[in-house]
Amino acid sequence: MSTLPKIAWIGLGIMGSPMAENLIKAGYAVTGYTLEADKLERLAQAGGTAAGSIAEAVRDADIVITMVPASPQVEAIAYGPDGILDNAKSGALLIDMSSITPQTSIDLAKAAGDKGIRVLDAPVSGGEAGAVEAVLSIMVGGQQADFDAARPVLEALGKTIVLCGPHGSGQTVKAANQLIVAVNIQACAEAVVFLEKSGVDLAAALDVLGGGLAGSTVLARKTDNFKNRDFKPGFRIDLHHKDMGIVTDAARTVGAALPVGSLVASLVASLRAQGDGGLDHSALLRGVERLSGHTTES
After folding, report:
1. C-alpha to C-alpha distances, 52 to 67, 94, 139, nearest whole angstrom
2. Which residue out of 174, 197, 222, 227 is catalytically annotated?
3. What number of CA atoms fall less than 13 Å from residue 219's CA on the CB side?
């Protein structure tokens, strides 16, 4: 019988499904719960166990991992008689890998501690591809001992795993990450439109740009999206809009100016208002095209 900790996984979306499957491949027993029946079936086919409720999923788990869209969803699955805190066993470790506000993580850690449940906030960066390839960057907030206990599990999910400070610190670093990513995608999108309107071979231009100082993980990951206008969601505009709200609010709280970030947050919000919220965040290209007088297809 395996001596590895039993894992409950709550939230099997674009990121959560491949991440849970990577834990199964690493030898962990994973019991999962999500609202979509087809995602539960996918987990079962991968070798996991589908649960009928959060309570059922977490009851015998040593580690509970959550991966849901935003703070309201984290609060919905954590609190109340049917939630994680009332049904997980004392001594369990809750690792929340959602991207939420730092304060939500701090409040969750306090409430869980009152019930004998340890907590780490551990949001990730790397998108769907990073989740599938198990090369995510994982930024963690919490206690050193809990981080050490979680590390073997996190190593099955990512490559860069760093304890950034106390509870909420992982979320603060993730907010900074999302600021950098959004600004980078916007700059790439503007460059693409500029290059195409100038009559330059876009594929050749992006290839040489990627090899110089302008190169970035964002450019490498999103080049095909830009060239093919393929905006199938790996990370939706809706979610990046949420994240830009987190970083702008947090920056205001600590007195940090975000002149470029605030502008890009507005551009993300504009794209969402125009009906593109379900597209990949590389669809910021569509916003630049519209501003440049090019009519994009729906």
Report:
1. 17, 19, 30
2. 174
3. 20
115 catalytic, yes or no? no
Q: 298: pLDDT confidence band, cut at 50, 70 and 90? A: very low
Q: What is the pLDDT of residues 148-203, one digit of tens each?
A: 999 999 999 999 999 999 999 999 999 999 999 999 999 999 999 999 999 999 99
Mean pLDDT of the chain, nearest integer: 96
Closest C-alpha to 98, from 11, 218, 7, 5: 11
Within 13 A of 266's CA, how many CA atoms are on the CB side? 6
DSSP notation for 100-147: --HHHHHHHHHHHHTTT-EEEE--EESHHHHHHHT-EEEEEES-HHHH
pLDDT band at 234 (very low <50, low <70, confident <90, very high): confident
End-to-end CA distance of the chain: 53
Q: Are 33 and 10 in contact (CB under 8 A)?
A: yes
Under DSSP, the state recorded for 230 is: -
